[in-house]
Design brief:
625 residues, alpha/beta, Rossmann fold, NADPH-cytochrome p450 Reductase, Chain A, domain 3, 3 domains, 6-stranded parallel sheet, 21 helices, 22 strands, disordered N terminus
Length: 625
């Protein structure tokens, strides 16, 4: 290993929403400003078997759902958990872990904590105590990242002074450090573009996503299929303050096999007027053809050996499919770069303040809390004219949105159904905001001819249960979506074989306003159907606001304690789906009460009993914010 390689800091990240990428990139920039070359890779790009050969590695990982690792980390994590790796395997490796999480969740920063322990168990030496970023902090995860980085540079310098030739406190000035963006744009004349690449949305989507810099590594860029909306039905009462839709799609391309409990990811469309405004504001020619290339390649071995042929794409199409200009907020680094390109002094000073440590809290209020979009920020600072290369690097990628599938493929061949809550909220400064994808879907008209919807199928956190497995399902609000598919599937199975009972706990505000799929659940609880008493099943509904005292699903679970306990003792599995705020932990607490009461055991024993159930693969949670 050369001296340069021994001085190179490896930063491995695993992200679900993009925050871990931004944190990792900031760590890399801060290292290079101190004279230490840094290499950034997503964990799915890195061959984990090479870890013993590394000198110093910084891990940046987010926690998803109920303590789950991001998709990009799962293969890497499975490798680390191999039993043949002994406690000396990583001796000589120095490491640091920074986690991104939300203290509102029960398993706050669970992935970072588990990774830290596993690395230590394998013999690696921690440089600094793990850092835990919290979305609940007034400055978001950066409230913890700033002081953690100061400790990291100081301790790294003590362990390996070669990393920082001039010491950890020497920092290259921002003006000198700001060099070229990580990507370069090549423009192509129309006669250079092969006609075969000018048509086909599937090819366009694959081109756009494969060129988005470092964001979609390891993910399939070409859609699994295209869907055509055939039904858009409102499930909630008009004027009740909620808008939940039942959407049905036909497969336009070849049908995809899926299971109940799977997840459908959709790439949303962006408002054409917003795209036009962005292109006009940035003085970009929408009809030009471009390719996007990394300015330099990392020479490390990638785990999956990816390589993609890059073909030209129309600039407008690239913006529409790969750059989230109308829903995502810019990251802090974007404000720093923008300050260099601001022609107006007052704008430059404001941007510099936002990018500074002193302005961190104000930036969080202006940017994240208000969910300022890229387009709005650019319009707020009109003297800033960023080159296209910087725009491509700094603007968050347009991400797919994931929805639990609410249909059974057996009951609806060649179709897939979704239950979508149309997201809307008011910011602290009383600005109305809506969810990009949910509002776009809600506004689609099945009777109008329109573009087909690109979609990807993924395994969710709710594995399809065998017909012989008794089920306790808890799905308040749109958490009922996957369980509609479960009930449909078991109904089909019950026509040809014996099936185990299902009890379902649903919750909503009012019986008249938002009892989603009311007729469906009631029909399946009668006439010897799968939720009926005759089949050993049950439907239990909590209407939280139909009486003075609020009643939630956890209250209904406790109310039917004996029924729940009997089913648990018969080998039932528990499935929980819905909001990720308090509901999953409240439901878990209700089960603790039941096991303790009905099993006549102390609370601590009840917790161990439930943990064993979870470990046996019989307690599943799928939650979303």
């Amino acid at each position: 290993m050369t001296e340069t390689e021994s001085r190179k800091l490896l930063i491995l990240y695993a992200t679900q929403t993009g925050n871990a990428v931004d944190a990792a990139e900031r760590i890399g920039r801060e290292a290079e400003r101190r004279g230490c070359p840094a290499s950034l890779l997503s964990m799915d790009e890195y061959d984990a078997s090479l870890l013993p050969l590394e000198d110093t590695v910084v891990f940046v990982v987010s926690t998803t759902g109920q303590g789950d690792p991001p998709d990009f980390m799962k293969v890497f994590w499975r490798f680390l958990l191999q039993r043949n790796l002994n406690r000396h395997w990583l001796e000589g490796l120095r490491y640091a872990v920074f986690g991104l999480g939300d203290s509102g969740y029960q398993k706050y920063n669970f992935v970072a904590k588990k990774l830290d322990k596993r690395l230590s168990d394998l013999g690696a030496q921690a440089i600094v105590e793990r850092g835990l970023g919290d979305d609940q902090h007034p400055s978001g995860y950066e409230g913890a990242l700033d002081p953690w980085l100061s400790s990291l540079w100081r301790m790294l310098n003590q362990k390996n002074p070669k990393l920082f030739p001039d010491g950890p406190d020497y920092v290259i000035s921002d003006e000198k450090f700001l060099d070229l963006p990580k990507v370069q744009i090549r423009y192509h004349a129309a006669d250079e573009v092969n006609p075969q690449y000018l048509f086909g949305s599937e090819i366009e989507i694959e081109k756009a996503r494969s060129m988005s810099p470092g964001r979609f590594s390891g993910r399939q860029t070409r859609p699994d299929c295209f869907l055509k909306l055939v039904k858009n039905h409102c499930l909630t009462k008009a004027g009740c303050g909620k808008d939940v839709r039942h959407l049905e799609f036909n497969f336009e391309s070849s049908a995809i096999e899926y299971d109940v409990g799977d997840v459908l990811e959709i790439l949303p469309g962006q408002d054409p007027e917003a795209v036009d405004a962005f292109l006009e504001h940035c003085h970009l020619d929408p009809e030009s053809f471009i390719t996007v290339h990394p300015r330099k390649e990392d020479n490390r071995v990638l785990a999956n050996g990816r390589s993609a042929s890059i073909v030209p794409i129309k600039l407008r199409t690239f913006v529409e499919l790969a750059m989230d200009i109308s829903s995502a907020s810019p990251r802090r680094y974007a404000y720093q770069v923008m300050s260099y390109f601001a022609a107006a002094q007052h704008e430059k000073e404001r941007l510099q303040y936002f990018a500074s440590a002193e302005g961190r809290d104000d930036l969080y209020q202006y940017n994240q809390k208000e969910r300022r979009t890229v387009l709005e920020v650019l319009q707020d600072f009109p003297s800033v004219q960023l080159p296209l290369e910087w725009l491509v690097q700094l603007i968050p990628p347009l991400k797919t949105r994931a929805f639990s599938i609410s249909s059974s493929p057996s009951a609806h061949p060649n179709q897939v159904h979704l239950t979508v809550n149309v997201v809307s909220w008011m910011t602290p400064f009383k600005r109305n905001r809506v969810g990009l994808c949910s509002m776009w879907l809600a506004n689609l008209d099945p009777n109008q001819v329109g573009a087909c919807i690109p979609a990807w199928f993924q395994k969710g956190s709710l594995p399809p249960p065998p017909p012989s497995l008794p089920l306790i399902l808890i799905g308040p609000g749109t958490g009922c979506a996957p369980f509609r598919g479960f009930v449909e599937e078991r109904t089909i199975q019950s026509r040809s074989m014996w099936t185990a009972p299902i009890i379902f706990f649903f919750g909503c505000r009012n019986e008249e306003n938002d009892f989603l799929y009311r007729d469906f659940w009631l029909d399946h609880s009668r006439n010897d159907r799968v939720l009926s008493d005759a089949k050993g099943g049950g439907l239990f509904v909590a209407f939280s606001r139909d009486q003075p005292q609020k009643i939630y699903v956890q209250d209904k679970i406790r109310e039917h304690s004996q029924t729940v306990w009997n089913l648990l003792n018969s080998g039932a599995a528990v499935y929980v789906a819905g909001s990720s705020t308090k509901m999953p932990s409240d439901v878990w607490s209700a089960f603790e009460d039941i096991v303790s009461k009905e099993g006549a055991v102390p609370r601590e024993s009840a917790v161990r009993w439930l943990r064993a159930l979870e470990k046996a693969g019989k307690y599943h949670v799928e939650a979303w914010s």
